[in-house]
Amino acid sequence: MKYLVECLPRIGCTSIAVHANERPVVASLHPSTLELKTVSGDVSVSIPLPHNVDIKCSYEFKACGDRDYVLRLRNRNEDVVGNRELNKSRNFLMSLPEGKWGKKDLLDLGQFKLTCLCCGSAIIDAENCFKLNEMPSEFWMELMDYWHCHKPDEPTGACETGRYSAKQNSLNPCTKELLVGGSFLLANAGTFTGRVICDGNLLRCSKCNVTLGEKTKEQLYKIYKYNMKLSSLNGEECSFFPPENDIVFTILNHVKGNSARHILLKCEDKKVHVWIFAIDISVTLSDGAIIRNCMKVLYQEDVKVEGNHNIDDATVNHIPMKCFLAALDGVNTLLPKNNAKMGPWNVSYIPMVIE
């Protein structure tokens, strides 16, 4: 028996889809648990619910295909009334997660250390970082047209061409100042003296020579978080940055900045078209795992969509792309047959922040 529980907070509904050889019946229903069994009683399962439901409503599975059944329950009234997504005064998109290991996370640790994931040598610690700042939105340069009543980069003479852009429109952190992005850290070259070496446009650990990041067109050093390990100075707390988070935060940036729902991920010769079908929902999978605050993602690999102006393009790195697809495929295999596909699309779910 495979099942999927999908909680849709904005409409106050929880849907339970089941793929089984026999019609399932509800043995018992509690606010946070659903007990199922088949008509013959040969199979029984206890399903944890991602959201409390109203146990006073009627419940009976309805057939919706070959060995596919669905049950819809109302979410508990008091939870629906207090749901944060129903607050129309709140900007939902702009409240989406900014990233893991953000400025606040690092400050809360007090003194911290970021080390090379491969060899453990220090990349960032108290010796080369005295100031933390958050990265501005990646779309900040596009807003220049709205910030000025004239075009500031229009030259007053031939020698002035591009001078304003080069001076004012680029980031220029001080030495030992760290700009914290959703999935990367940015600093000038002097911050990483003796710790990171530059090999063309690639940045490598000076001790083990593994790739840590890349040099930007502004000549800043961009270190990807998934290539490092974070620990507090006393060693009590230690965490890693799952590479698929890099793709998740790229997608969220496009959702927030462009209200995009269709994104073409490009990595070398591979292309994946993702459709962000729903945001900030919670589900229970067939293995009993609950994924809260996740995205419902529809995806197709190696599709030809160039020229479609409704699709955003995003170039991503190989390791995050590989891990992202593995995460999507892993969840997809747990879904009931009727829920694993939507036309040509594969269906999956992924948390907005992967711990």
Notes on the structure:
By secondary structure, the protein is an alpha+beta fold. The chain has three domains: 2-84, Immunoglobulin-like (Sandwich), CATH 2.60.40.790; 103-136 and 171-240, Metal Binding Protein, Guanine Nucleotide Exchange Factor, Chain A, CATH 2.170.150; 243-351, no CATH class. 15% of the residues lie in helices and 38% in strands. It has helices at 77-81, 103-108, 144-147, 163-168, 244-258, 318-332, 337-340; strands at residues 2-8, 13-19, 24-30, 33-38, 44-48, 62-65, 68-74, 112-116, 122-124, 131-134, 177-180, 184-187, 196-199, 202-205, 211-215, 221-224, 228-232, 238-240, 262-267, 270-284, 290-301, 312-315, 341-342, 345-351. The strands form four sheets. Strands 1, 2, 6, 7, 19, 20, 21, 22, 23 and 24 form a ten-stranded mixed β-sheet that branches. Strands 10-11-12-16-15-14-13 form a seven-stranded mixed β-sheet, with no helix packed on it. Strand 3 (24-30) and strand 4 (33-38) form a beta hairpin. Helix 5 (244-258) packs across helix 6. 28% of the residues are buried. One of its GO terms (biological process) is protein autoubiquitination. GO terms for molecular function: cyclin binding; ubiquitin conjugating enzyme binding; ubiquitin protein ligase activity. It comes from Zygotorulaspora mrakii. This is HECT-type E3 ubiquitin transferase E3D.
User: What is the domain tally?
Assistant: 3
Shape: elongated
Mind describing the biggest β-sheet?
10 strands, mixed
Strand content: 35-45%
Indicate the mean pLDDT.
Answer: 85
Contiguous low-pLDDT stretches (5 residues minimum) are 157-164
Q: Taking Cα atoms only, what radius of gyration do you get, to the nearest Å?
A: 24 Å
How far apart lie the N and C ends? 29 Å
Number of helices: 7
Fraction of residues in helix: 10-25%
**Strand-pairing-aware structural class:** alpha+beta
Number of strands: 24
GO molecular function: cyclin binding; ubiquitin conjugating enzyme binding; ubiquitin protein ligase activity
Organism: Zygotorulaspora mrakii (Zygosaccharomyces mrakii)
Protein name: HECT-type E3 ubiquitin transferase E3D
GO biological process, one term: protein autoubiquitination
